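Handout, page 2. Input:
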Amino acid sequence: GDSLVDVLLEFLEALVHQVLFVRELYSPELFERQRLYGIAVRRARHPDLAAYISDAVAGLKAPLASGSLAKVAIVVLRPDRTPVERFIFEPRGLDVEAVEAHLRGLLLKLQYADSYLKKLPPSCTFEVVAYT
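Output:
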């Protein structure tokens, strides 16, 4: 139902913000602490960036609701637009509890990203890509 889609969108939005924070695509001062489903997350305060993320995630609502969204990737790009990293979420066939557990796992894993991901080259950007 709608509630699952809304939960998914909320989590995905948080996931994008968290990736940007953890991977240091933007200055840490741009982020504020928040809690989502009992997990400490960071959220970008910059209005343009927050709006861009919000719009990108809102664009996933229809394919998510219709079940045609196979996966979503948050892709980190070098300045020449070649992908460096992909953070992938696959929503297929999950119920609310499974989705929350899956996304909570992703968010928690991201908190330790420093220990298993190399430092990014300077001036990376990102995009949110939907695969249907």
